[in-house]
Amino acid sequence: MKNITKEFPGVKAVDSANFDLNKGEIHALIGENGAGKSTMMKMLYGLYTPSAGSIVIKGNEHKDFTTKDAINLGIGMVHQEFMLVEEMTVLENIILGFEPRKSYDRIDFSGARKKINRYIEDYGLDIQLNKKVKDISVGEAQRVEIIKTLYRGADILILDEPTAVLTPQETVKLFKIFKSLAADEKSIIFISHKLNEIMDISNRVTVMRHGKHIETVQTKETSIPDIAKMMVGREVFLDIDRKKPDVGEVLLSVEDVYIPGERELSKIKGVSLEVCRGEVLGIAGVDGNGQSEIIEGITGLRKIEKGDVKFKGKSIKKSSPLKIRKSGISHIPEDRNRRGLNREFTIQENLIADKYEEDILSKGIILKKAKIKEFATDLIERFDIRPSDPEISAEHLSGGNAQKIVIAREVSKEADLIIASQPTRGVDIGSIEFIRETINKAKSKGVGVLLVSADLQEILSLSDRIAVMYEGKITGILNNEEATEEKLGLLMTGGQK
């Protein structure tokens, strides 16, 4: 990809950038949110047409090609948001659109199964073809997406943030698959924000910043601090200066709560915990062990069957989500697209989503457009949301900048308690630093924080106390001083500290 440029209305997403890929290599493409990584790869996959520049694949230059053309050229892409039909089986999803036929009206399922089983065996892709997608784990869904690309004949695989929602154990499995694919002369483009993973798995690293190609280096000849500096343009510090908490009154009290779950192991069974003013209580655990359900129960999004939830001494068990928010609780949801944003709304509309009725922003049913723009512009500057135009639709933003909208809206309101669920999932290193500092500052101002994160380093960095969940129960609560990754890991698998 040579001198590639891509312009959208008012935005130059990619600016004369370069990228090359060798056969059998794992090439990491990194940069901050909005740096142009995903846009660059969407052009390689035929989803976007470059405004300028050339794309040469296996010696031949290609212009104005479609996704179908890209697939025919041996290019496959696994998107950050999985493209699977939940009500269909794994097998049906893999062959969808590329069904082998026994006759005009009959699909050759047995032939497809044999072909797919070869990929499963050759690359250790451990999936069950008869399961419906709605019943499989996130790690299994990731492997289904990879098989989908291989089934379609891909020898160039683009993986956009493939480890963003995986557990450490699932990431280890995925990297074994990467290595076996590369050994078989498949080429992998690995888009990620996790620099330790990039150092572990890649042969080369290309860094982008503000749409431009900054540098391409051999992984073994660089370091995490060097890569971070290339990405952000300055030194980056992820170690938070976590001060001893000045603990005040109990804000949130969860008392022997039972909540139905999506699956048997995520049912909440007798969970009790407290969050005090001026402290961060972290909840650690492998995804799917009840973390989502307990947060949805507290915030009014899921019915509580038994037990009680009190905020500042008053029961909120039967309160609506709106009433709970207005009582002084902010909620950064784990899924920004389903619960945190309306992607079709503008940045400023999302930023005022829970404030538009306030006198400063509206009069009766009339919105004060100038005041809304002023309010949004202030938050955009404070939280470094890019692009900075408050009237741009949120659907045009990268994942990290979309997350910043949610963070800005929830942290800027005068809440007594912030519930932050996976606040840095899928965001870049500069944004991670900023979000962690924001949570730490809120604590220092006397706000209570309930933090849910699958990132143990994040939990240890920010939390004053750490509760561990396993199969819908709390297996232990540790003070930060006594917590280690080993102790937490044992509790996360149902063991004792």
Automatic annotation (TrEMBL):
Signal peptide: none annotated. Keywords: ATP-binding, Cell membrane, Membrane, Nucleotide-binding, Repeat, Translocase, Transport. GO terms for cellular component: plasma membrane. The keyword Transport applies. PROSITE patterns: ABC_TRANSPORTER_1, ABC_TRANSPORTER_2. The keyword Ion transport does not apply. GO terms for molecular function: ATP binding; ATP hydrolysis activity. Its main location: membrane. Residues 1-235, 252-496 form the ABC transporter domain. This is ABC transporter ATP-binding protein.
